[in-house]
Amino acid sequence: PSAGPSDVEVAIKFCGICHSDLHTINGEWGVDIYLLAPGHEIAGIATAVGADVEGIKVGDRVGVGCMVGSCRTCDLCQSGLEQHCTQMVATYSSVFPEGKGENYKSAVGHHTNGGYSTAITVNSHFVFRIPDAIPLEYFGPLLCAGITTFSPLNRHIMQAGGGAGKTVGVIGFGGLGHMAVKLAKAMGAEVVVISRSDAKKAAAEKLGAEIMAHGDAAAVATATRKFDVILDTVSAKHAVAPLVGMLKVGGTYVLLGAPKAAFEIEALPLLFNRHSMEGSLIRGIPETKEMLEFCAQHKVLPDNKIIKATEVNDHLKALANGTASAERAVIDVSTIDEMG
Q1: Backbone phi and psi for residue 134, each to the nearest 5 degrees, phi listed first
Q2: Which residues contact 153 (CB under 8 A, 6 or more apart)?
Q3: Distances from the Cα of 147 to the Cαs of 171, 183, 256, 293, in angstroms?
Q4: C-alpha angle with apex 340: 16 to 329, nearest 5 degrees?
């Protein structure tokens, strides 16, 4: 739809590919709404701005992340936790609700579609102005991989006295994992990548991290009580219990990936080591803005590779079979026309 008084129309220039896109396409998260355009790592140019919008003007570089709406009135929304609102509208795959404006009447009852497309209209509360220090093609992944990893690190590192003297474990070294490494290092922590093998050793060391193979029982044993916090970014089934044992007493294991299969965890080690386990999503608008300021200040950007729209299926297959590199694949939306 065209922009209403509180909306921004965005001409999409780039959109990152997230593992969530693959889960959704495959129907693994209970989504069975098709045809569907995924994509919630959107960067583009504001082409129309409603009369009531402040802080964004036509021509500005802007981005849209994982959500495009919420009730805006509940305690969660008022606390900057829009992502947990029961009326949160995801950028793609949510049924669009009533009451969002006259210009959206034709959208009511239809599902939302995301950034694998050329344009999107969004309420300005959920549109982010891109800091000058961040290039357009790098911005989108910050709104998913960036905030997803920043938020738990902010809670357990920055808000717990900073990174000095702390060690962070990062399980998996894909799109989420490499952002976790960069952010934790920028916060001053030591970082160890915990991967299936040491095949990505050079890439991890390039970012200033060590690497450890979690299939190496001896290495895992020597890492007992090593980490203040562990971020688990893996979306495939894997054994979690041995990895939890690498936490220090009082440490926290944060689940960021979303394996479809359940996993087992033993109670006694949690009790005797005061370990905590938590899940973490994206964050609300205020902390996302804080993350963007942090990344601009510390020059933390994702490792990107720009791909054509015709290459998307190949990249999704690489994500599915685990052969995708740590680089975030970002679609050059101008190439959609090449699909014929």
Answers
A1: -110, 120
A2: 168, 180, 183, 184, 187, 189, 229, 231
A3: 17, 10, 11, 11
A4: 15
The tokens of 274 are what?
């005061």
pLDDT band at 327 (very low <50, low <70, confident <90, very high): confident
CA–CA gap between residue 20 and residue 9 (Å, rounded) = 24
pTM metric for this prediction: 0.94
pLDDT (mean) for 148-175:
95
Q: Where are the beta strands (DSSP E) in 233-336?
A: 247-255, 276-279, 304-307, 328-332
Cross-strand bridge partners of residue 279: 255
CA distance 62 to 333: 15
Provide the percentage of residues in the chain whose pLDDT is more than 90. 81
d(CA 224, CA 67): 38
Of the CA atoms within 13 Å of residue 117, those in its CB half-sphere come to: 17
In degrees, rounded to 5, the angle at the alpha carbon of residue 79 between the alpha carbons of residues 73 and 83 is 80
CB atoms within 10 A of CB 311: 16
- Side chain identity, residue 32: D
Sheet strands side by side (includes 276-279): 210-213, 190-195, 167-171, 227-232, 247-255, 276-279
What burial letters (b/e) apply to 160-189, b meaning 16+ CB within 10 Å?
eeebeebbbbbbbbbbbbbbbbbbbbbbeb
Whole-Å CA distances, 86 to 30, 52, 130, 201: 17, 26, 28, 42
Q: How many other C-beta atoms can be found within 10 angstroms of the C-beta atom of residue 236?
A: 14
